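Friendly challenge for the regulars: who can give me the C-alpha cells for this chain first? No prize, just bragging rights.
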Amino acid sequence: MNNNRRRNFRSRPQKNNFRRRSGSLNSGSSNSLSNNGNLNFNRNGSMNNINNVEKAMQKYQQLAKDAQSNGDPVLAQNYLQHADHYLRRYNELNERRESSSEKNETDKKSLTKEENLEKEVRSATN
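First reply, four minutes later:
Bragging rights claimed.
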C-alpha cells in the first residue's frame, strides 16, 4: 500500500434544492433588480435595524483601537474602514427614520385639517 500518495478530490453531486428558496428562481424575469445578488445579501435584516448597525459600528471602532494599541496599523485601518461603513449606514437609517417621522407628522396634520373640514361641511348641511 502506498499511504504517502495523495487522494484525488471526488466532487459530490450537487443537490438541486439545497438552500434554495421557493421564489428564488427568476427564469424569464424582466425585472432588472431581480438579477442583483446583493439584494438578498443580508436576509436577517440586521442592516436595517439601527441598533444592530450602531453596535457593529462600535465593535469595529473598539477593534481598531485594540489593533492600534497592539501596534498593527494595517489591521487598525481595516477595522476603521468597517466602522466607517457602518457609520454611513447608521446615518442613512437615521435620515430615513427622520424623514418618515416628518412625513407622518405632516400626514397627521393634513388628516386633522380634512377632519375639521368634514365637520364643518356636516354642520353646514345640518
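The two ends are 105 Å apart (CA to CA). Residues 45-125 form one domain. Your move, everyone else.
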